[in-house]
Amino acid sequence: MEATRASLDCGDAPGKKSGAPGLLDPVVIRACGDVRGRTVLDCGCREGRFSRVLLECGAAQVLGVDLRAPTIEAAKELAAGKDTYRVADVENVSFLGNGSFEVAYPTLTNATCPPSS
Fold first, then answer.
1. By three-state DSSP, how is residue 69 classified?
2. DSSP-based three-state secondary structure for 62
3. What CA–CA distance (Å, rounded) separates 1 from 104?
4. Which DSSP category does 3 fall into?
5. How far apart are CA 87 and CA 19, in angstroms?
6. Which domains does the chain have, with CATH numbers?
């Protein structure tokens, strides 16, 4: 299914495929704000689907990180060109070196947090 920026509530589509839109995509896109021309860190990117959605919304560059090597390999195979992926733990951001990002998005981190006591 062709995901368009209009259907994602972020403007006109460049026509790249990010896969079927997720149920929460419009909500999360609004929460990320205007990503046009910005660099984005996608924490827990899995196979990079939402990284590619952010590119469709105009992000200049997206770095997707995840702990699982197989999902990063899948993300690399699906990369759209301005997205890069690496196995890393976002609890220790030393892998960023001196790099910085204008937007950081934690994919599904709320679904994997332990219950509060």
1. helix
2. strand
3. 27
4. -
5. 22
6. 25-110 (3.40.50.150)
